[in-house]
Amino acid sequence: MHKEDLETATPDATRARQLDRFNALLDEILPANRFYARKLAGIEPPIDWETFAALPFTTKAELVEDQAAAPPLGTIATYPRERYLTYHQTSGTTGHPLMVLDTRESWDWWIECWQYIYRAAGVTDADRLFLAFSFGPFIGFWAAHAAGLELGAMGIPGGGLDSKARLRMLASAEATVLLSTPTYALRLAEVARQAGIDLSATGVHATIHAGEPGAGIPAVRNRIEEAWGARCFDHSGATEVGAYGYTCAEQTGLHLIESEFIGEVLDPATGQAVPEGDVGELVLTNLGRAGWPVIRYRTGDLVKAGGHDCACGRTFQMLPGGLIGRADDLMVVRGINIYPSSIEAIVRDFDVDEFRIVRTRQQEMEELVVEVEAVADVAEALADAFSERLAVRIPTKVVPADSLPRFELKARRVVDER
Ligand SMILES: [Zn+2]
Hints:
The protein has helices spanning 3-7, 11-29, 34-39, 49-52, 60-69, 104-120, 140-151, 163-172, 182-194, 218-228, 340-347, 376-390, and strands at 84-90, 98-103, 128-131, 154-157, 177-180, 206-209, 231-238, 242-246, 253-256, 261-266, 279-286, 297-304, 318-320, 325-326, 331-333, 336-338, 355-362, 365-372, 396-398, 414-416. By secondary structure, the chain is of the alpha/beta class. The chain has 2 domains: 1-326, ANL, N-terminal domain (Rossmann fold); 330-416, ANL, C-terminal domain (GMP Synthetase, Chain A, domain 3). The longest helix is centred in the first third of the chain and has 19 residues, at 11-29. The protein starts with a helix and ends with a strand. The structure holds zinc ion.
């Protein structure tokens, strides 16, 4: 079936297809994948949805421990190592990086998933993609690059350069699409402004972001779109799971690639599905990566469960607002739940070049201070906006220009001093 048809199939047809593919995956992996043969002992495919909903979860900590206990691959590799083609790794929750390998088939699957992202962003074979990443061991930019080539677009690897050199290369290569973290798109805009470069004259018509939830925050997206004169698209993925979410032209959140993943939004405490409109943890099963599968993988990302009726015509489930935060990012200040993304959503409405959140503890109570590179008036207005929009007073502190760290990959703007 053609991808466009899959994206507009009825939710029932999509679910039926997911279950068929999941059962085919079980047939393929259970005889050979020691990790899941052990976890799913006693399960005999084909299974139904009720059985699926009772399958055990998989966690990152479990994968990391498994690999540490049986180096180098752990027991998660379905096939002998000779079958694997690509090597990537991700930072581990316990400090050990997690190695993740793909076979040719699994790598082709990554490239396939990326086509959904590109198509929804209006990227075609006429485009020139500038990838402003360092091309380290994280999988995202490699998959984006390979998928761009497969589409017939030109891939421009913007690694190993400072921001000014990247901007010069982007302009001289006449790039039409920027791929970067949302933070780095704003950083490039800052450097361009200082150097007197007009980004809206570069011909970039779309920016595609990953690595952080920022592009799903309207205030961040508006700033990026304004600076670049381009449409800003969000995308979500993880090395151990795959590229699973993308923004359509409606820009209201992330569509889940339900042709390649089973997505569940569950109450993190009970493991039960939350009703539409509620926030829960995103749990993913990938259907096309037999060489390195994950089943009911707890991403730790909080999302809002959305519907299947986007104005773009796609029926893939919507996660309104994209990734809301990490379950472990939650800060509770005087009884109010605050995620770093709620702070950023407000900060980006103001003229602030960089900021960070310092968590402290006073008399057993959590307190936050937001440090901003801005003028005093802006800091005061920002503190007022926090009170108004978060219903809690959060002091702001002005720090000198260029004194806060800048980030190319995942920004770390929360400093814990409790
Ligand atoms: Zn849509």
